[in-house]
## 1
Amino acid sequence: MNNNQSIQPYAFVLWVLLVLFVFRVSAQMAVAFLGVAFLPPMEEWSSGVFPYPYLLVAQFLIIALLLTICLQFSNGKGWWVRPNRRLSTGLLVSGSVYLLVMIIRYILRMSLYPPERWAGGSIPTRICT
């Protein structure tokens, strides 16, 4: 099995994740700019700590980065495809810390606001309202 065949499953998963993230950003934009009523209101999408215009720019940069990574994995060549132990260790550690913080944040929010347990119609973007 050559390198291109061994990374194809990863390419597929990365494309699915990119599409899901683009869908999420598009839904948030629909609420922010079009006032779509069937989605949660804007206050539930964002904590307000980071102004939405800056958040949107950051999301577009993430989409551009993910698109680059997806294309490189699909082609089987590029900087993101080459094994890099330092990068992979750093991403694994930072991703694990982020996951742990999000789990703790969710548990804290659900402890502070029992009526919203477990999915009480809100996207848990902040600990306190």
## 2
Amino acid sequence: MGIIQGSYATDINDQGQVVGYVATATGRIAFLWTSAAGMTALPSLGGMSWNVASGINARGQVVGSSEIGTVVVGPGEIRTVVHAFIWTAAAGMTDLGTLGGTTSSAEDINYGGRVVGSARTTADKLHAFVWTAGGGMTDLGTLGGTRSRAHGVNGTGEVVGESETASGESHAFLWTPQGGMTDLGTLGGEFSRALDMNDLGQIAGWGESASGPHACVWAVGGATTDLGTLGGASSFASGINEAGQVVGRSRTASGELHAFLWTAAGGMADLGTLGGTLSDASAINELGQVVGTSTTAAGERRAFLWTASGGMIDLGMLSGSKSATRGIDSPE
């Protein structure tokens, strides 16, 4: 399927800086958005047409994935080579390399500059990694299967993601420098995924339950909380802040997919849309500001910033790019 054109917000730091990417007919362009300057394009590793920003920390360091070329992996089979990067205003783009294979992607970065993501090994298996400026890229292994992916890292260096188990299921994991990788289990089904973790040990993600996939919060050493839905059959959590506020997406009673904000006191609240039928929240900062993507009344997909006082605002597009007006796929 082709790229769905539009703008996508993936993360926000406590200074209100937003990162993401704009999808065009010819590729993807990473961006940094600020209230003062609006949306600015970030450079790519090799001047190629595929570049995505996935995370930003409070120091303004940005991580993501950038195309650097192609490689022949078999008769008639060509793979696009994408490498994880870290970008700073002072140093520009730095290629983080791989675990010996052809590709890598970075998902998150903490204040100390610790980067997590996934990369191909020399055996061409996708494994979760941690990268530091002093130690380079370290393979975090798996839960007994052949693949794993890291999605989030907190301030103390604890990592969350999902991994294949020895039985072939995909389970959420917590990795710590002291204890390695631990299986977080599911909500009763076969699959789960952990996307983000705060410094209090609360982990946001989703697990398969008897009624379908539900957003949940794992408490390290404690209970797993099912966050429910907005009235539909499914929900997925993607971000959590230090106050325990959780964001993600959920089916409504009418079947639409909407961004939500969950709190322990108030439960799950619908954040609405930019006038269309679909929205998805990807991250929340310590001020309670939420970013994600929504369709507009015209059917365009646009990055948004939501605040309790101002609601949902459209972050627009990069100058010269153009959003499509065709339908939108569910991110499920």
## 3
Amino acid sequence: YKRFLSEIIITLLYLAFAFAISWKFALMATLAVLLVLYLFRHLNQYVKTLSRDTSEEYSTMHGLLVQTLQAFPYIAATAQFRHLGTRVMNSIVRLTGYYRNQQIAQAFTRSLREPLSVVLILGIVIVQITLLDARIAPILVSLILIYRAMGYVIAIQSSWQQTMSMVGGLEMVEKEFERIAGNQEKRGATKLAPFSNHIRFEDVSFTYPERTIPAISGLTLDIPAKQTVALFGPSGAGKTTVIHLLTLLLHPDRGTIRIDGMPHYRIDPHSWRRQIGLVPQDTIIFDDTVANNISLGLDGDDALDQKQDNPSGRKPVDMDALRRRIVTAAERADAMSFIRDLPDGLDSVVGDRGVRLSGGQKQRLAIARELFKEPSVLILDEATSALDSASEQAIRRSIDRLHGEITMVIIAHRVSTIRNADRIVMLEDGKAAAQGNWEELYAMPEFRKRVEQQQT
């Protein structure tokens, strides 16, 4: 695009000199230039359409390839490769066609550069001499300038055509930026001090876009500091939405969330999220050592960098203190019991996605990572739903060990996980059907029925 602009400037300079010498000759040349650019407009539009088609086809092909990789075991087991392979090959054939047509258009433009310039200039010279009886001397001087200008006019067309060939990808990026700008989260200006009192949901409701039924409706909830609150209910009851509201990833359509008395719309989300530890159902484990997996939350410091030089100027990390902190977090998560049995203890590499660990071990390692951050609030999102009985008991021991030390919010399907919670909130259709401790809820027939069904 910058080359396109520079070619325009050079062309205008040549035409300006030509006007100074023979304005009639230069005027005819200018009209010829405009005619050339007008004739190429359809070709430019065609190249622009090809660019858009190419970008869309690339998106389609990449989507097919990613889905194939993600579903590889299923596709291999059910012999679906031929069907997907045909779709990918068809996409490649279409892409090849688009690229071929773009190259043909560019070659066509380049091939016209010399003959078109010569034909137009000869035509103008003939008209000047035979019809307008112009003097030959200024024509010859202008001829050189116009010839150079015509060359740059074709170069302008070529550069603009190349710009059009890239416009499809550019438009996709611009649309994505516009979508992101429209979905920027609302940030308050108040930075939260360390959490110490209460989190309160006051008549909170939230409906996802393009849905008519609220995910959360009129929820009132109190989460005191250093207590354990459990959210219990079937799939679709709104448990995960409550967590997203709690972390301020979502903002209520109605009602207010107050953290130590501060309403959600005044809070700087980053200052609140730095105080949160989150253990999702699908744990994130990196192909690294146990120690490095636990210490990921060290506030942006290169925690395990043991290089002697320190070009960044940051304060060197005390490796002994860091090691003690890692061990403390692992012990609080009841993870040291299995870490000691690993070949290299804390320095054992766990493999891609923690392949060398069991499900329960990965969950306890994830809890240790969050405790290493020393959060004010620990959220456990279905931490035991995919585990066997032995692994679930290990996670329960980890949770029980943290009871009273830290504010915990637990999402659970299994009632055994939440038995010792200070408060249990039974959600149904986005509403709090009941709240209380285990004894209070167990006295309710509906809650007791669910417990008995799970035990059965």
